[in-house]
Every structure is written in C-alpha cells, then in structure tokens.
Predict the structure.
Amino acid sequence: MSKTAVAKKAAGGNDLAVVENPPVHVVYSDVLKMIKAGDNPLLIGPSGCGKTTIAQQLASTLKVPFSYLGKVTADFQIKGYMDAQGRPVHTTFRKAYENGGLFLFDELDSSEPDAITSAHAALENGVLDAPDGLIKRHPKFFFMAAANTWGHGATLDYVGRNRLDGATLDRFATKFVDYDEDLESRLIHEKYDGGQDSWVKTVQTARAAVRLLGMRHIVSLRASFRGAALLEAGMDRKQVAESRLFRGLPEEDKIKLVEKMKTSLGNLKNELGNALSTHGDVKDGLQEVTETLEAFAKLMESKDEISDLSARATAVIKKLGKFENTVTRAENAIDAAEQFKDRVAAAQRDALAILKRAPK
C-alpha cells in the first residue's frame, strides 16, 4: 500500500482515516478556496460520490474538529433545547459554532425548510440564538452543506427531497460533485495492491452504461469500495455483482445494461486502435526524449562544461516541449491498452453470468 493516504470508507460517508497527504477529490481545492474566502460551500451531487469525505478532509486540512448532522425536521436540532431540569442540551451545531470546527449540514434537501432557517441568523449575524442565551460564533467555525439535488424538489432518483427557498440557497456557494473515477481507481489500487482493479473498471463501465441508457439506477463509489471488500473476503464475483452493482434490477434491465457495457467496450477498442496506429511516431519520440534527458543528466555532472550549462539546458527544455504531445499520446495509449484488457475480461465474466440467467 502507498505511503500516501488511504481514505477508509471514502464512498460510505464516514470514518475517514486521516493520514499525511491523502489523495483528494478533483473538486477539493475549489471547495477549500470557498471555505478560506469565508463562504459556505454547498456540495451537490449523486449519492456516494464522496461529499462527506471532502468535508472530513477539509476539517483535517484546517486542523479543526469535524461534525455533521443529517436530515433536520425541527429547529431544536440546530439551536438545542432545555431539558426537564432546565439544563441546556447542546447540539453538534452549537458545539462547533461555539468552540470551533467544520460542521457539515448533510442532506440539506431532505430537511424541513422551516428547520433550516433556524441557522440563517447564526450564519449571517455571527450569533446563535440558543435557549440559554446568545452564543458568539467562534473564529474557526466553518459551515458547509451537502445535497443530492439543486433544491428544486423531488426528482426521479431522489423522490424524498424538498424545495429549498431562495434565502437558503443564497447563503451558499454551490459546487457540483460527480464521481471522481481517477480517485476511485487510485484508492482501490493502493488498498488492494492492484488486486481489484478489474472490478473497479467493471463498475465504471456499468456506471457509464447506466447514464447512457438513462436508467433510474445508482452505481456509486460504494459499488467499487464495498464490492472490492466482498471480493477480498472471498465472495463469488457473480454474487458481488448482484448485491453491489445490479441490486434488484429487473432481469430485462440487467440484459440491457450488460449489452450497453459491451457496446462501450467496443467503442473503447476503436479508440485504442486509433491511438496505437501512431505507435511508430510515439516510439521515435520517446526515444529522442530519453536520449535528450540522458544528455542533460551528463551535462549536469560535467564540471568542464558548466560555462555553457544555461544555453544547453534551454535547448533541452525546448526539445522536451516539442515532444510533450507525443509523450502524452504514448501514455494515453498505454493506459487505454491496460484498461481495455481489464474491462474486457471483467465484462465478459459478468455478461456470461447474467445472460445464463436470462429468460429463454
């Protein structure tokens, strides 16, 4: 496993194991800028895309405690309340607001609009109107929220969502968060030393096929992370696909999905062929770049030629720039070849297993 970080349950929304230099979501830097600018980010994206993990990693970067609250139905869940003995009961929001920390208001679009407004004044005025008095906002209190929709009400995929009023939405800087498949692949590769790479490729191919078909079916990062864990535990691949990938899809939809996955792989094969058609040029370009780098290394070690180091180094840099596109094409071709091989093997196994069960 890499010495860089592994985020446990990165797709599950909880229990991030914070270590040095963890890999982060592609939108992470933008959200961090929003926080540092004093804004309140609202992360909008599909289920299991890593919104909670982003918030946890931000808290680690800012060196403050992380806390969160899910669906809110009443304002006392924000402000707190007095118990039967007249003692104040502090909420997670109150604790972070008063003592500092990053607070995530999760499932914002599932919460009752009237309950949400109880946080408005605290965010705008720097004071929380708690049952036991006014509470001043801590200088290191950071607030953000997450939702599956844009606040316009229920959708076909998320039927239990509420409309959010303009006053609520106006208090946030919105950022769309999609599945970061590069991060998904990297985390699984590091955690299992490459042993579950083919499963991740299968999940990603299925995800793309679901979107192309317009199916009401979610293939989140959980399918990759938890599916890989099941495979490592010894579960049969067919059973893992049923429990984490297809999850109750009607047999007819499974067949459509597998056929679309096969079509996607065919398109990938064509792209690979186009990339490899320039193999000769790529090889020549890489050879020249290698020779140039070797010459530069020798130059750096040569005390006799230090006088013209600057001029020759400049020439080398220009030459490297000339072949930058060639190197990129070579790397893309290599990556495409590896991905195609893994996807074909995994998709064929899943397709055969599913088609055997198809109605005759």
Summary: The two ends are 46 Å apart (CA to CA).
